[in-house]
Design goal:
alpha+beta, 2 domains
Length: about 290
């Protein structure tokens, strides 16, 4: 069976298609810059990275998260409320400064919510700053090791830079759209970003190996063969993550699945339009 986009891809101008991931990259940078100018921070951080308290609730019905956030902010200061909707019902994540658990829970019940279950989490400011510092070090070290391994494997500048650009684009894109969707950077979402880095490298090395190491068929045929395998990997992973997001009631699992879904969606144009284009241009020049 022919690849569905084979005819279109063979006739398309691959250099023009590289504009699409470039636009996504610039849009992601623009979102992060706007967020920095508006708030003084590049992205929103959860209590794992800043310190504070989080109340996780399982509710019997729907509610207005904006009205609840306004109600609680009048009593406790700065409060973030996020609605959680899953196949099993409704829930809420409430984050704020250091307050008493019973006082916060009583305020929620006073507002009128029917609470089935509640979980309280508190993180000290010093511990939150320590988590954030360690997370930065982990990400920097991961990029250094990733870049070094890629250069060792291929020993060519352009193919290696293509792999690195795709990984950087995936991370920045995920962070940017996390701000748009109101997803904070927590330990769970940071773990998802590290998984994104590994998955991005996986698909890009698959592509680069097919195009540089193999000799059978034309460059376009090898590109399409890699695309068939890579897209099947990505789409099946996204399907599994989508099911996890819908049925899971655990906030950490929902954060991981949502961030990975965003990053994998961005990885498709970064890998199969930008990186393929760079490699085709490189091979044609050679």
């Amino acid at each position: 069976m022919n690849f569905p986009f084979r005819t279109w891809y063979e006739s398309a101008n691959y250099k023009s298609l590289m504009v699409i991931p470039l636009i996504i990259f610039l849009l992601s940078v623009g979102i992060l810059l706007y967020h920095y100018q508006s708030t003084g921070e590049w992205f929103r951080k959860g209590i794992d990275m800043e310190g504070g308290v989080q109340l996780s609730l399982k509710l019997t019905g729907d509610f207005d998260d904006t009205a609840l956030e306004r109600f609680l902010s009048e009593r406790f200061g700065k409060v973030k409320v996020r609605k959680v909707v899953s196949a099993t019902g409704y829930g809420a994540l409430i984050q704020c400064g250091y307050v008493d658990q019973d006082e916060l829970l009583n305020a929620v019940k006073e507002y009128g919510l029917d609470v089935e279950e509640s979980t309280f989490q508190e993180v000290g400011s010093a511990l939150g700053k320590s988590f954030w510092k360690q997370s930065q070090s982990a990400m920097i070290l991961a990029f250094i090791l990733m870049g070094g391994i890629v250069f060792i494997i291929f020993r060519k500048v352009v193919p290696s830079l293509g792999v690195i650009f795709a990984a950087v684009g995936d991370i920045l894109g995920a962070l940017a759209f996390m701000q748009v969707l109101g997803i904070d950077l927590t330990l769970a979402s940071f773990a998802a970003l590290l998984l994104t880095l590994g998955y991005s490298i996986d698909t890009d090395i698959l592509l680069t190996t097919r195009l540089l190491k193999r000799r059978e068929g034309s460059v376009v045929e090898r590109s399409i063969g890699a695309m068939k395998t890579g897209l099947m990997m990505t789409l099946t992973t996204m399907a599994a993550l989508g099911v996890l997001y819908v049925i899971s009631t655990a906030p950490a699992l929902r954060e991981i699945s949502s961030v990975l879904l965003i990053a994998l969606a961005i990885d498709i144009p970064n890998t199969w339009l930008m990186n393929v284009g760079l490699l085709r241009w490189y091979l044609e020049r050679k």
